[in-house]
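Subject: design request, 193 residues
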């Protein structure tokens, strides 16, 4: 089993917080990409304290902090049993972490994208706001656009659809779920072509 992780972290700077609303979009996106690098380094530290060997690769150059993203190097790290943490998004402004996840998954020939969230799967309405929502256990990628489901951004969904890459959405906050989903246990919701 090989594991690569794409971290987010830019929502605060992208206007989610009231204080960031009037911020220049380019500056905010750059800050968001840097926030993902900070989160990647924190995750690397936590994993290595558990004796899990990792490498952080970034889409923006910062050689003193992490390796630049190089596809073959990432694959080689995975083959050696290391967890690869991708940071800096795609290196392109306005590109969210879900696009980076789809792009990196395609590039390393991943079998699936495992999207860890705050909820148990995909619902027909926002589970944080709507009490009588219905969980959707299986869904097709081409239907995500029509149904308006916010599984991932449209570019990420297109990349997954074009590359037959399934997405499994599961609850990160439930103890043991990462191990369960990586082991192939049927938890969460599955979106596939």
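Subject: RE: design request

Done. Sequence follows.
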């Amino acid at each position: 089993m090989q594991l690569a992780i794409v971290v987010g972290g830019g929502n605060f700077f992208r206007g989610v917080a009231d204080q960031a609303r009037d911020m220049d979009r380019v500056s905010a996106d750059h800050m968001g990409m840097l926030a993902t690098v900070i989160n990647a380094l924190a995750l690397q530290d936590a994993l290595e304290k558990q004796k899990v060997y990792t490498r952080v690769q970034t889409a923006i150059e910062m050689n003193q902090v992490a390796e630049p993203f190089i596809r073959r190097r990432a694959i080689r790290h995975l083959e050696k049993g290391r967890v690869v943490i991708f940071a800096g998004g795609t290196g392109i402004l306005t590109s969210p972490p879900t696009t980076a996840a789809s792009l990196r998954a395609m590039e390393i020939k991943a079998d699936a994208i495992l999207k860890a969230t705050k909820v148990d799967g995909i619902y027909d309405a926002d589970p944080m706001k709507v009490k009588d929502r219905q969980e959707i256990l299986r869904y097709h990628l081409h239907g995500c656009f029509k149904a308006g489901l916010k599984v991932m951004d449209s570019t990420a969904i297109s990349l997954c659809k074009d590359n037959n890459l399934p997405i499994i959405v599961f609850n990160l906050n439930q103890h043991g779920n990462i191990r369960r989903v990586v082991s192939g246990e049927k938890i969460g919701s599955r979106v596939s072509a």
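The chain has two domains: 1-110, 111-193.
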